[in-house]
Amino acid sequence: MQKTNPLYIKNATIFMENEKRANGSIFIENGVIQGVYNKNDPLDNLPANTEVIDGAGLNVIPGFIDGNMHGAAGADVMDATKDALDTMASVLPKEGTTSFLATTITQAPENIDRALKNVATYKNKPGQAEVIGVHLEGPFIAKEKAGAQPVQHMMQPNMEQFMHWQACAGDKIKTITLAPELDDKGIIQQLSGMGINVSAGHTNAAFSDIKLAVQKGIHQLTHLCNAMSGIHHRDVGAVGAAFNLDALRAELIADGIHVTHEMLQIIYNNMGSERLLLITDAMRAKCMPPGEYDLGGQVVIVSEDRAELENRSLAGSILKMNQGAKQMFALEGVSMEDIITMTAVNPAKQIDMYDRKGSIMIGKDADILIVDDQFDVKYTICNGVVAFKEE
After folding, report:
1. What DSSP state is assigned to residue 324?
2. Of 277, 287, 251, which is closest to residue 347 (Cα–Cα)?
3. Are strands 20-29 and 7-15 parallel, antiparallel or unpaired?
4. Which uninterrupted H or E stretch holds 270?
């Protein structure tokens, strides 16, 4: 890692892994959290080149991890260029995202090849959000629940094809979304056995299908309520499975559009923060003006608040992570600790990266946000480097 100047943040409320320290301070060096101090036990004798940030009564929390992110600022993972990933990584810290899974879309296999090879050779840069792996969304999904995924490129789950893509990605595929009802060859068990986070999504599965899939190794649902079987009084479907099966965590697009405010409250009441992962599912129009954009070769019409295909199906989102945090924080019973759990702790645990990311602890990567009480981002620090500062 490139050597950077040390950072010292003082006079802030620091939300650590197991405690909250008021008027505390934190010392960062070489991209790693080196120490966290109490008000009455500050760090003395700072190195001469240390940058000091006065938290001024603000909150220090772990950086957001977006586990389902297709694009932003005019760029998309499927562009398969270093410039596209650079563009995304440079703009995401403004919303508090310090790391993300580069998320693909159902496309012709050769296009997925190119996108994965691009991620495999991409070098993360100081002062940008970190690409920590790949979320392979499709093409092993159900046509009945296509959403904005191109139907013509969908295929049956195929282990040989997955292994080819994992080789293209340099073993960086961390999460795969598939429709479990299509798995008639035991692929879920094989993927889970390899340590892949297998997520049920774009699925028409009944509750019994999801229950069986959990036994095989599925432990996540992709963008809960969207592109999946909903709750019916004779079969509670995939959404009901999220409520009933404690082994499942679920992604959630908390923009008030994909899931209404009232449904967000119902979901939180049933699942709590321990089983939810906030995501954006954002596409290239995020941070861009309204107009027409591309998603997987399809025309997407973007207004001030949403992205839709010409048939009015939602096509990803233009949500920012801190906006999703604000939506959830407005719900009854949700604390700042709950937001941290949903935006940092759970995403890191779900892809087995909690030893490095997801909380503020000595020895972990210095992916840190300084925010006010409403999740307005004042500073974003990515691996010890100030990546965003509010002007």
Report:
1. H
2. 277
3. antiparallel
4. helix 261-271
pLDDT score for 67: 98
pTM recorded for the entire structure:
0.96
Q: HSE, CB side, 13 Å, CA atoms: give it for residue 349.
A: 18
Structure tokens at 18: 């197991």
Contact residues for 226 (Cβ-Cβ < 8 A; gap 6+): 147, 253, 258, 259, 314
Fold of 7-61+359-389: Urease, subunit C; domain 1 (2.30.40)
Quick one: which of 272, 319, 243 has its CA closest to 68?
319
Q: What percent of the chain has pLDDT over 70?
A: 99
- Give catalytic residue positions: 281
pLDDT tens readout for residues 45-65: 889 999 999 999 899 999 999
Residue 73 identity: A
Structure tokens at 134: 């790949």
* Domain 63-350 coded CATH 1.20.1530.20: no
What mean pLDDT comes out for the span 229-246?
97
Q: Which residues contact 10 (CB under 8 A, 6 or more apart)?
A: 25, 42, 52, 53, 54, 55
